[in-house]
Write a structure and sequence with these properties.
Length: 257
């Protein structure tokens, strides 16, 4: 028997059509889960479904959803429940890199947009998904997994990244509050504080940033996407049921360097 079999479980991954989200989706699909991607780009969504569908025995769906739009979240959840009947696992992964401005150059619009996606988006996704999970719990079917994609920048300083760092620090606070509030329903909440991974977002950064990171990370390399598959499956499985409210660095030792 596979210790980490997720057959029959339904997992939502926001922003799951690329980068870290798609890497985690691969693990969930291989473990047998039904995987539902909520993301904005329809073309990338279709490509992700094509890649994930052959990996496991679960269904793979992709729904167009902007987490900055609460109506879109509500509609995506309604479609998910209509297709699969339940949600057991939710990865709040959708995020943006931020405005990239120095503190004296912060604009209200830039700050608010980063918060709207990275923090408010996750909170609203959790609002709608946990409403369903709590209703199930009250009918005797307790349990649920909330996993947020945070960042090492939430506990470290980086130039021209105040809005991003603040949005992820707030996400850590949301994680701890959700863990405390929702424990009575058997719902756990944890956050992954990712370090340096090569993604579409980091590809836009100054090349000197990657060089600096490679020198500072104790393991002397970026994170490997394949390693995220098992991490995602562990946090989605019953083997992590006694872990909640944690903000775990996944960074090759960067946060202790």
């Amino acid at each position: 028997m596979d210790m980490f079999d997720l057959t029959g479980r339904v997992a939502i991954i926001t922003g799951g059509n690329g980068g870290l989200g798609l890497a985690m989706a691969r693990g969930l699909a291989r473990a047998g889960a039904h995987v539902v991607i909520w993301a904005r780009n329809a073309q990338k969504n279709a490509a992700a479904v094509q890649e994930l569908a052959p990996l496991g025995k679960g269904d793979v769906l992709a729904l167009t959803c902007d987490v900055a739009d609460e109506a879109a979240i509500a509609a995506a959840l309604e479609q998910t429940l209509g297709a699969l009947g339940r949600v057991d696992i939710c990865f709040a992964n959708a995020g943006i890199s931020g405005a990239g401005t120095a503190i004296p150059d912060i604009t209200a619009a830039g700050w608010d947009h980063t918060m709207a996606v990275n923090t408010r988006g996750a909170a609203l996704v959790y609002k709608h998904v946990t409403g369903h999970m709590i209703a199930r719990a009250k009918q005797g079917d307790a349990g649920g997994k909330l996993i947020a994609t945070s960042s090492g920048q939430s506990i470290m300083g980086v130039n021209r990244s105040s809005d991003y760092a603040a949005s992820k620090a707030a996400l850590n606070g949301l994680t701890r509050a959700a863990a405390f509030e929702l424990a009575r329903y058997g719902i756990t909440a944890n956050a992954l504080l990712f370090g340096y991974y090569e993604t579409d977002i980091t590809a836009k950064a100054d090349p000197k940033f990657a060089e600096w990171m490679s020198r500072r990370i104790p393991l002397r390399r970026p994170g490997d996407h394949a390693g995220l598959e098992g991490l995602a499956v562990f946090l989605a499985s019953a083997h992590s049921d006694y872990i909640t409210g944690q903000c775990l660095p996944v960074d090759g030792g960067l946060s202790i360097s």
